[in-house]
Write a structure and sequence with these properties.
alpha+beta, 7 strands, L-fuculose-1-phosphate Aldolase
Length: 205
């Protein structure tokens, strides 16, 4: 895809996360690979109010081409693109997942895996300790986790997902939010899928 097509894809994704209630206000940021560069949402802007030209083009090191101020989380996004198969990065502050991220959690598995969809696309969701948004420490820690999987929960912050395309990155964020919603509805009492059941699903797909 050319620059204009990728900008349209990014804009469409921004509108989708707003329509699905995964962000509010100026929270969240999204980026997409564009050739050897990255298009990322600007800082301090409501994702639902952006136009195609608002996307900021930057190099893989986070330096910017031309006008625009990229999201302060740009270095976290750049770390994710160290994986050559990553084409899109989604960071949202979805309600249930963020509420979950405010609880004391097992850092290796934030919640039981309740649904087949979550088992297939997420599995055991790890949790990073709270690190200041926009910091190099958060970027490095998130990049280390994303090097080996497509999602991570950020303590008292939100969710970070990646995908080989925009749809996949968004789907993973939605699966996490839905599984977290089920967790709160059940008040943590429901039994999740066993490790054997999860493994069987992963093998099947």
């Amino acid at each position: 895809m050319n620059d204009s097509e990728q900008r349209q894809t990014l804009l469409r994704l921004c509108r989708e996360v707003c329509a699905k209630g995964l962000v509010c206000g100026s929270g969240g940021n999204i980026s997409i690979r564009c050739g050897g560069d990255i298009l990322i949402t600007p800082t301090g802007r409501n994702l639902g109010a952006l136009s195609e030209n608002d996307a900021v083009r930057m190099r893989p090191d986070g330096s910017v081409y031309g006008a625009g101020i990229p999201s302060r989380e740009r270095h976290m996004h750049c770390r994710c693109y160290a994986r050559t198969d990553v084409a899109c990065v989604v960071h949202v502050h979805s309600t249930y997942a963020t509420a979950l991220a405010c609880l004391p959690l097992d850092p290796l598995c934030a919640m039981p895996v309740y649904t087949p969809g979550c088992a297939i696309s997420v599995g055991k969701l790890p949790v990073l300790p709270y690190l200041r948004p926009g910091s190099e420490e958060l970027a490095a820690a998130a990049g280390e986790v994303i090097a080996g999987r497509n999602s991570v929960l950020l303590a008292r912050h939100g969710v970070l997902t990646v995908g080989s395309n925009a749809e996949q990155a968004l789907n993973i964020a939605e699966e996490i939010e839905e599984n977290a919603r089920i967790f709160f509805i059940l008040a943590g009492r429901g039994a999740g899928l066993t490790e054997e059941e999860q493994a069987e699903l992963t093998r099947a797909y």
